[in-house]
Design a protein that fits this description.
Elements (H helix, E strand, L loop, with lengths): L2 H31 L9 E2 L14 E2 L14 E6 L2 E9 L4 E5 L2 E4 L2 E2 L2 E3 L4 E2 L5 E7 L8 E5 L8 E5 L4 E5 L21 E2 L3 E4 L2 E5 L4 E5 L9
Length: about 220
């Protein structure tokens, strides 16, 4: 076999390996993008309201809402006041929900929160702590961020009306969610008809430097 022939064979082999590596690396992204109901338009998170699940500027490629999606624990995209927002469902129609000292009470029962790390220094001299929380019916726990006592830690009990959802940001002390009325820069209880997508896939997370990850694959994933 001539040297030229060996060089051609080596080049073809190297090219095949590069192609295989590219296919393997892109498979997670392709798998989610080809899923039925996947919306090819991406959105980004402009605020810290969903930390640590979503960081600022994380890209979200939602999928269409399916029957049963509007359940406690689901992270949804919805429209309100000509804006697109992303938040987690905490309570559904008919639920009674309240908060006492930062603990969510659903239908009279407290939702346990378990710390997963020591308090860490944060902006403005406050301290942050990751907590594990899981709503009734939620498939797996999620992480929330607690920055100590705040104005949204205590909320009087309300009943979620038919066709509406009560939403809570994972960054509990830095989220304008259903705890606050729309005239108070919150969102109030959101009509189900405003929901247009489920946030289950992050094609790009600039802060984490990660391409193509499921929403629940967060740093320090809740166990």
């Amino acid at each position: 076999m001539s040297a030229g022939t060996k060089w051609v064979i080596a080049s073809i082999s190297l090219g095949a390996l590069v192609l295989i590596a590219a296919i393997v690396a892109s498979w997670p992204l392709a798998r989610f993008m080809l899923e039925p109901g996947r919306q090819l338009k991406s959105y980004y998170t402009p605020s810290q309201s969903m930390r640590p699940t979503l960081e600022v500027n994380d890209r979200i490629m939602p999928r269409a809402v399916r029957p049963g999606d509007l359940a406690r624990g689901t992270v949804i995209l919805f429209r309100i006041a000509d804006q697109v927002r992303v938040t987690r469902i905490a309570a559904i129609a008919g639920d009674r929900i309240a908060m006492q000292d930062g603990i969510v009470f659903l239908n009279g029962k407290p939702i346990a929160q378990r710390p997963v790390e020591q308090l860490q220094p944060a902006e403005f001299g406050r301290q942050e702590q990751h907590l594990i929380e899981q709503f009734p019916g939620e498939a797996k726990p999620h992480l929330i961020l607690d920055s100590g006592p705040g104005p949204g830690d205590n909320v009087a009990e309300v009943i979620v009306p038919v066709g509406h959802l009560f939403l809570l940001g994972d960054n509990r002390d830095n989220s304008a969610d259903s705890r606050y009325p729309r005239e108070g820069y919150g969102i109030g209880m959101v009509p189900e008809r405003n929901v247009f997508g489920v946030a289950d896939f992050i094609p790009w997370s600039p802060k984490r430097g990660v391409i193509a990850r499921p929403l629940d694959a967060t740093d320090g994933d809740a166990k």
